[in-house]
Amino acid sequence: MSGRYHVPAVLSRPDVAGEGAIGVLALQGAFIEHVAALTEIGVATREVRLPEHIAGLSGLIIPGGESTVIGKLMVKYELDSAIRSFVADGGAIWGTCAGMILLANDVGRDQPLLNLLDIDVERNAYGSQLASFEEDVALPDLGIADLRAVFIRAPVVARVGPNVRIEARDGRGNVVAVSCGNILATAFHPELTADRRLHASFAKHAGQAAAAVS
After folding, report:
1. Could you please report the per-residue DSSP string of 61-118?
2. What is the largest CA-CA distance in the chain?
3. Are 178 and 164 in contact (CB under 8 A)?
4. Which of the 8 DSSP states describes residue 187?
């Protein structure tokens, strides 16, 4: 999770962005960093706080933060069902850190989950925030090598379902990125570095997915 949290004062209309924008779930956590990363590479973006903010998006990012808080707010504002419908209709989704936790089927405790990825996740797998670290990881199937990955109270994938592809491991062999269809999950925070390759890859994939179902 990011050390900076941004909780919206009001649930208002999203920032102006047209059809095909990438949405960033903006309930809590490091959503501003993702918006900045997408804006930097010229991708239209929209902060998502209510179900109607999802309309017209090509992709959605669930940022790092406090997964329990984000999950409870998703349920409160009925975003959980809206996100499931978005994915069922072919929308692309990417969860980072807490977002990976929320996409999982099981995390070893009772909390709201989207159950969109057939994975089990171990929360805070590396220890407390004092154990945060950075290292380079490779996502060869996405054409990305030497991506600087920031791990902050990060999860790891403890079980991978048969239809889920492992995209990256850390230096200890832990699974830290997976994908299945239009769903991507990473245990680390690419938005906290200056490297925008993974954001560009996701935006490209989301656009292709949207075109395929239009």
Report:
1. EE-SS-HHHHHHHHHHTTHHHHHHHHHHTT-EEEEETHHHHHHSSB-SS-------SS
2. 46
3. yes
4. S
pLDDT of res. 14: 41
Q: Are strands 59-62 and 156-160 parallel, antiparallel or unpaired?
A: unpaired
Count of other CB atoms within 10 angstroms of residue 130? 6
Q: Which residue has the tokens 């709201």?
A: 112
For the chain, what is the total number of helices (H) and then of strands (E)?
5, 11
Phi-psi region of 17 (alpha: psi -120 to 50; beta: other; left: phi over 0): beta
| Beta-carbon-side half-sphere exposure of residue 146 (alpha carbons within 13 Å) | 0
Q: Tokens standing for 80?
A: 């959980």
CATH topology of domain 22-213: Rossmann fold (3.40.50)
Which residue do the tokens 């779930």 mark? 25
CB contact at 8 A, 101 and 155: yes
Catalytic residues, by residue number, are 97, 189, 191
Q: Write out pLDDT tens, residues 55-110.
A: 999 999 999 999 999 999 999 999 999 999 999 999 999 999 999 999 999 999 99
Amino acid at 130: L
pTM (two decimals): 0.90
d(CA 203, CA 196): 11
DSSP 163: T
Question: 183-186 and 92-96: which strand pairing?
Answer: parallel
